[in-house]
Amino acid sequence: MQTKRTIFGNKGLPYLLLAPQIIITCIFFLWPAAQAVRTSFLREDAFGLNFTFVGWRNYTRLLDSPEYLNALKVTVIFSVSTVILALGVSLILALAVDRMIRSGRAYTTLLVWPYAVAPAVAGILWWFIFNPTIGIMPYILENWFGYDWNHLLTPSDAMILVVIAAAWKQISYNFLFFLAGLQSIPNSLREAAAIDGAGPFKRFWTITLPLLSPTTFFLLVVNIVYTLFETFAVIDATTEGGPAQATNILVYKVFRDGFVGLNFGSSAAQSVILMGLVIVLTVIQFRFVERRVTY
């Protein structure tokens, strides 16, 4: 098979075509990242006019801070819970829609709609639903199950609320990829397994799930990044990190310390640590988890 190659008559044309993307990356990613690294070694005043080089002091103070270690623990619990809930529910919905013949498109359209909702709006919607005074869910939980729901006072209730709100926002995205992955699996494989006597669970575990592993691995990486960076608006709209720092994840603490507390050095150091944490997690996933992916 002969491979075709594109040859540019002008050697500068490829660089010209790449220039817009390179410029955007430098302005909106590389330059802010470099500024964050620089600021993390400084102590600035509230207006950013005077600064003092303090070296690694911002980092050492963070590692010795009980509040920061608590935010790290809260982030782990929040991220793991949100990823498991979002992936699990979206996979179940995709399996249900994949079995439908006539109404599959209608259900797909309805399930995709929540993805168009902004994270802040999603947080406010679930805040209203679980509001202890006017929400429908606290009323149902108290009258049907005898549980007194109050996410304003109970840390576990607050964590459950933010996990549900963040996962609900991401389910539509995961659902689309899972459904596409399911529809790309040949029906002949599952039919052959059914003829051999394999039940629905065994067919799913031995055929469907291994063939979905590339999609699952991709969504795992995307969802982890989502929980670490894009859930700020959900936290801010529902609990604002409370009660008693029970939902104060790392990205929200960066905002609170930097924009509210005006401690730019500590906030920048937290940003650098968070960025490094995401890079390490991504490398680990591609280095070890990808080995179990069946392409």
Structural features, described:
It is a single chain. This protein is mostly helical and 295 residues long. The chain has one domain (65-290): MetI-like (MetI-like fold, Orthogonal Bundle), CATH 1.10.3720.10. The chain has 13 helices and two strands, in the order H-E-E-H-H-H-H-H-H-H-H-H-H-H-H. It has helices at 13-39, 57-63, 66-98, 104-112, 119-129, 136-144, 155-183, 187-195, 200-211, 213-230, 232-238, 250-260, 264-287; strands spanning 42-44, 51-53. A two-stranded antiparallel ribbon has the order 1-2. Strand 1 and strand 2 form a beta hairpin. Helix 2 (57-63) packs across helix 13 and helix 5 runs parallel beside helix 11. 26% of the residues are buried. The mean pLDDT is 88.
Identify the notable features of this structure and list them briefly:
single chain; 295 residues; mainly alpha; MetI-like fold; two-stranded antiparallel ribbon; 2 strands
Task: Give the topology, please.
Elements: H1 13-39, E1 42-44, E2 51-53, H2 57-63, H3 66-98, H4 104-112, H5 119-129, H6 136-144, H7 155-183, H8 187-195, H9 200-211, H10 213-230, H11 232-238, H12 250-260, H13 264-287
Antiparallel strand pairs: 1-2
